[in-house]
Specification:
This protein is mainly alpha-helical and 197 residues long. Helix content is 54%, strand content 10%. The chain is built from seven helices and five strands. Strands 4-1-5 form a three-stranded antiparallel beta sheet. A hairpin with a 2-residue loop joins strand 2 (26-28) and strand 3. The protein is elongated.
Length: 197
């Protein structure tokens, strides 16, 4: 799955908007939404909220997790724990990028929130790199990491399979060369020639 597919999945998350227009229900392939009443909050998928925001038809209500105090607590907990902490939203990076990109004026402390979310991402990526390094050094064939989001897993996808494949090839080559070296030394000690090998 590439980042665009993950973003597509994340755009289906339901968020709240406050429309500035009145309209009956709209019927779409993915379902029906509405009726829209000016000034009354309602829930719609993120992609629809972004489309209405671009047409200046609504104000986006930031999700509960996009609160400065809550994000600072998540950041501190992530720093303290050597394990990955559970994020309040599986698609936090996608949601933050889209909402802060299209409707930063609707989010109080938008620039600070953007910075804290980036800090959380950096801390988690550092942990992920450290975990991958430990896995490679231990020669392990698999690892278990809980509470990673789809975007975080996708960020290491180009590197991890190639690294595991290279590690396996090195291990296979060392297994093939080690017995041959042992046979050569045992033959030379017993007076055998290398032509017999």
């Amino acid at each position: 799955m590439d980042p665009y597919e993950i973003e597509f999945i994340g755009e289906n998350r339901i968020i709240s908007i406050i429309p500035n227009f009145t309209y009956d229900k709209i019927y779409l392939i993915c379902g029906e939404f509405g009726p829209f009443r000016a000034g009354l909050p309602m829930n719609v998928p993120l992609w629809l909220a972004l489309m209405l925001k671009q047409k200046q038809k609504c104000r986006i209500v930031p999700p509960d997790w996009m609160d400065m105090d809550a994000l600072e607590n998540i950041k501190e907990e992530e720093k303290r724990s050597r394990f990955f902490t559970k994020m309040p939203n599986e698609h936090y990076m996608v949601e933050a990028k889209l909402i802060l990109g299209a409707a930063s004026e609707d989010v109080p402390n938008a620039s600070e929130i953007k910075t804290v979310i980036k800090d959380i991402w950096d801390i988690r990526m550092s942990k992920l790199r450290t975990s991958m390094d430990a896995l490679m050094k231990s020669g392990g064939g698999y690892g278990r990491l809980d509470h990673l989001t789809m975007m975080e897993i996708n960020s290491v996808k180009p590197l991890l399979p190639a690294a595991m494949d290279s590690l396996l090839r090195i291990q296979m080559k060392s297994k093939k060369t080690t017995p041959a070296n042992l046979n050569v030394s045992s033959f030379s000690q017993s007076g055998g020639s290398s032509q017999n090998i």
